[in-house]
Amino acid sequence: MSKKPLILDIKGNSLDDGPGIRSVVFFKGCPLSCRWCHNPESKSPRLEILFDAAKCVACGACAWVCPRGALSAENPFFVDRDRCELCMACAGVCPSGALSPAGRRMEQAEIMEKVLRDKPFYDNSGGGVTFSGGEPTLFMPFLAGLLKNLKEKGVHTLIETCGLFNLDRFKALVLPFISTIYFDLKLVDPGAHQEYCGAGNNRILENLARLHTLSRGGRFEIIPRLPLVPGITALGENLAAAAEYLSAHRITRLNLLPYNPLWIEKLTKLGLKNPYPAEHPLMNWLPQEEMEKCKALFSRYGIH
Ligand code: SF4
Ligand code: SF4
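A: This is the predicted complex of the input protein with iron/sulfur cluster.
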């Protein structure tokens, strides 16, 4: 794998990814493969092509330039991904943005130039820059270069992580330049984590506990986040196990993330079938009353 990530997007003016007004840099590639991933285009570190049927005006320009004959309205996903060589000629001529690359190589200087344009907004709102994904720690030296540069300029830095990384390397390269870590705690049972996220969770749980201990020094803060996925993470036994784990490590803050099924529409854009019938729990939003019940459970353990 390349040492430099593909960048999926840089979103400005975000109010949802940390304190104040922020820019969010999305890296492509993740060591987990969660069944409910809200950004399925961020799972693979490799370049992919997206097709959005709702934007296509059927002009046929793309099929004319494709050197591989990979595009056809007869194909339910429009792009034959076995033929496509990802040259992106089609995306270059598409007048409506229906075809687009998922991922773009960007140098550190280009990313810095883009995010620093909004520095006055960060300064006035207590905001900063968030690194998300995908998993930004898959590319630690590249990430560290950006974080160091931002820290030197007095910008608040935050990473959103799945927690699966080598902690010694993280401490040496990345941690010195981080203000806040949003750390995902999804499933406590190792077997369930393996089944639904594609990897075990021993290292994740250990990293969370050790980073929380380090954060007591006050140099950075760490806030665990639990996505409430119906039928998977939002089950009572997982929530109780998560509350026990947090209590045992004297962690008293947790962000609960409400589930939404909008990611399922993105599967088609990537040429993937939706495997779930309409009545499947993953096809529905998490009801507000469920959210309140989950909050109440954690409150009983003194976790806010
Ligand atoms: S990326 Fe290139 S090969 Fe793939 S569908 Fe588009 S034009 Fe054809
Ligand atoms: S060029 Fe774009 S709008 Fe035209 S047919 Fe191809 S995908 Fe559709």
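Residues 52-102 form a domain with the Alpha-Beta Plaits fold (CATH 3.30.70.20). The longest strand covers residues 6-14.
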